[in-house]
């Protein structure tokens, strides 16, 4: 049996403003920093002690890991980072207000772009102010892998090699693994873990800053579907709020 803990970053400055973020590298809001510290305290209270940490290369996930580990007295843990855990690239929606986008394009199109499995938003132009083309942290990324937009299916495809090549070996070695990432990269991982269907995944939302614990069997599949939030009541309310963004 292996323990995996998933943690979505705390509220970011753009979550607070209701903007589509994707690969834009925004920082945590003060609320998000506190959420992250609380996430660390929840792990301590539940007796969950990660041995290793994996984060995306986006600042909000890195800051969340640091705040959570700091609160848990575990800042010294080994950390690996990968672009494969990044938030879904939101294409031309990056930087746009969610409520305004819903008003402009209608609820059906908004929901399709936001939660469908295989409909990506239009691509983001390389010279757009919110493009990541030229960002130093992607220097070693083969140019053909650099996204201009992604649907959730694309995220599953680029995330799974990291799951199998980097996270599963840690679990197989008996380590408790903490993954600090994003709403949609974690939806992609949960879809894989729980075997959620392409249509059903539209209904799954992940709250900020609340650790989600999975016990995994020898095939690295959940012993209990859906895992367990370390604060289930807070998670329920926060999930509802994420689902209703833009409304
Ligand atoms: O803007 C984003 O990058 C994501 C997560 O904050 O938004 P959504 O939950 O709408 O997919």
TrEMBL record:
Sorted UniProt keywords: Gluconeogenesis, Glycolysis, Isomerase
The organism's superkingdom is given as: Bacteria
Lineage, highest ranks first? Bacteria, Bacillati, Actinomycetota, Actinomycetes, Streptosporangiales
State the active site: 9 (tele-phosphohistidine intermediate), 87 (proton donor/acceptor)
Question: What family does the entry list?
Answer: Belongs to the phosphoglycerate mutase family. BPG-dependent PGAM subfamily.
Q: What does this protein do?
A: Catalyzes the interconversion of 2-phosphoglycerate and 3-phosphoglycerate.
Q: What is its EC number?
A: 5.4.2.11
> Mind listing the GO molecular function terms for this protein?
phosphoglycerate mutase activity
Q: Could you say which residues bind substrate here?
A: 8-15, 21-22, 60, 87-90, 98, 114-115, 183-184
Catalytic activity, per the record? (2R)-2-phosphoglycerate = (2R)-3-phosphoglycerate
Pathway(s) this gene product operates in, as recorded in its UniProt entry: Carbohydrate degradation; glycolysis; pyruvate from D-glyceraldehyde 3-phosphate: step 3/5
Q: Where is this site: Transition state stabilizer?
A: 182
Q: What general EC class does the enzyme of this chain belong to?
A: isomerase
Q: What is this protein called?
A: 2,3-bisphosphoglycerate-dependent phosphoglycerate mutase
Gene Ontology biological process terms in this record? gluconeogenesis; glycolytic process
Q: Which NCBIfam families match?
A: pgm_1, PRK14115.1, PRK14120.1
